Amino acid sequence: MANWLQTTGEEVPQRATWPASLQRVFAYGLLAIVIWFLILAWWSSDIAHHFSLTFDYSFYAQAWWLIAHGHLDPFSTVGSEPYWHNAFETVVWPLAPLWYLWPHPVTLLWAQDAATAGCFAVIFSWMCELVAVGLARGRLKVWSVALPACGVLLLLVSPWPVWIDSFDFHPEALDLFVALLAAHAFWKGKYRRGWILTALALITGSLGATYVAGIGISALLAGRRWRRLGVVLLVAGLVWLVLLSHIGADHASAVYEDLTHGTRASKFSTGGLLHAVLEHPSRPFRAIWSVRTDVYADVASGGVIGFFSPWAFGVSLLVLLEGSLTGQALFIQPYVQNSLPVILLMPLGTVMICVALASSRRRWKQVLSAVLAALAVANVAGWALEWTHGTQQHWLKVSTKSAQVLQRTLARIPNNDEVIVSQGVAGPFALRDWVYLISGGPQASFPVHGRAVWFVVTPYVGVETEAGTSQEAQIGQLVSHYHAQVVSDSWGVFVLKWRPRRGQRELTFSNHFMVPLWSLTSPVIFTRPPGPARTWHLTSATPGQLNIDDYWTVQGGAYSAAVRLASTGPVRVQLLDDSTGKVLQQETVPSTGGAIETRGFKGHFVSHTTQTVSSGSSVFQVDPVEPPQGDILQLRVVNLGTTRVSVYALGVRLDRASR
Known about the structure:
By secondary structure, the chain is α+β, with helices and mostly antiparallel strands. Helices cover 44% and strands 16% of the residues. The chain has 3 domains: 19-53 and 105-249 and 281-394, no CATH class; 54-101 and 397-512, no CATH class; 533-657, Jelly Rolls (Sandwich), CATH 2.60.120. It contains 21 helices and 21 strands. The protein has a 5-stranded mixed sheet with strand order 4-3-6-8-7, with helices on both faces. A hairpin with a 4-residue loop joins strand 1 (75-76) and strand 2 (81-82). Helix 5 runs parallel beside helix 8 (172-187).
């Protein structure tokens, strides 16, 4: 290594020479981190056991499974492209051997938890070494050992690391662990170790390149001894990002569609993004301003002042820019994986600034250091009180009974069969060659592989991005048009097995929006009769309402409604806006003479309901992603007398939204 790139770094005293008080803080801090990791690992096991693993986990888990089974260039059926196109995230390859140690979905989560705890350990060690250096040089007083103690509290008490690790699996924690080791090595002047770790960070792909460039910015700002090193790191990170873009490994940059819309940028890439920003320079400012609440939330829990510490500034700046330039809360909220570097570096930066103030000979700065540290701890306690209690409710969306049905289903499906599954529970089903997530609306299409295709549909179980009634309509098409076998339909989990015709390579759903009534009613109301599922229906010969659990969330506008039924007398059909209690439409359907007929209705209504989710209170707020908007409509079928009425299917569809 050229001498001009060597750094003297900080000379950290041997740990054995540290004051006993600092050694105790260090030992107890590491013990607390280990305990935190064990609790997090238990929580991850609970998440995996409850099938609360969604799209993102499926994407990485399928690649992990394929690599472990010899597919070294895995194709993601979840992402519909070769896996490496997603930011060249190589960390899954070295994780592949873990499959043979513990071949279960939780293994990836444990690896993520261990990496997060490793980041904690590196940052906490760095905090203690800062104080050790100051004490050895006589710049700090003994009370300063409380500063790293405050720092470890900022790490452990913050709710966001737990929330981030609760959201599926992502490589950020592992990539950041390597980058932090590199930055720490450069700070100490261990340049050989630092360059080896830098090379490993770059190999991890676009994330690692971003972190390396951020470390370069920090080194430039940290002082003269690291300045030349900072230039090289910054250039290396940026060049690697451009190179990955050139070979097509940055398809994830499609999240910047708002910036590139209407520009001459030819594609979603690093170069195309820069071109779009130069063409419309006002767009980045609008995007950042639109997510300002989440940007503040990212830096707040670890102490806002930490952002201005040189060694925390570089990576945090680039990460915040990458997330906020999307203009979407989904990519910048403090509980998404993108924000992990900011969440963890803020405590480091806060302690660094407090140590710098405590090193001053001026007493007011020493007092300010203690006050800022105390305020930072009080602040993170406020964030914890506001958000920790909602962790289970937010991330465990699958009941124990539903999870048991899913576990039995997973054990029943052969590994070489194709699975098409709702995204809210998809994770554990992704450990196979062929898995697809239900998406694309009622008219979705899926490739067909193998002799059997299993559908695992959970319209209202888990975190679903596809409308529940859309999935139920697909269930209806599977049983009526494709003659799929209903294997299970309990606790909100519908399992169907379909055998395609010889040579069939695609399954396509139509825009048919009718939902089979048996999929809407509880087992108490409806008992599965003998015969094929396409003939199942609900029958009543007494006055009153037949169906009770049919709900559609619909925005205002023109709509169509339909009922498929058979009756021996008049039947009343009502469309009720359950959000307002108003009857939108009411029709009396004459007798069908016992024949099965479909009756349709059209109308128009104005939506009055706005759905919201919790965003916190006072200064402890985030800007959440709002749920789908609209009123909740119910389509009722009422037997007016003692006639016999059988209902097979019904549905509501928005034909044109109001403007």
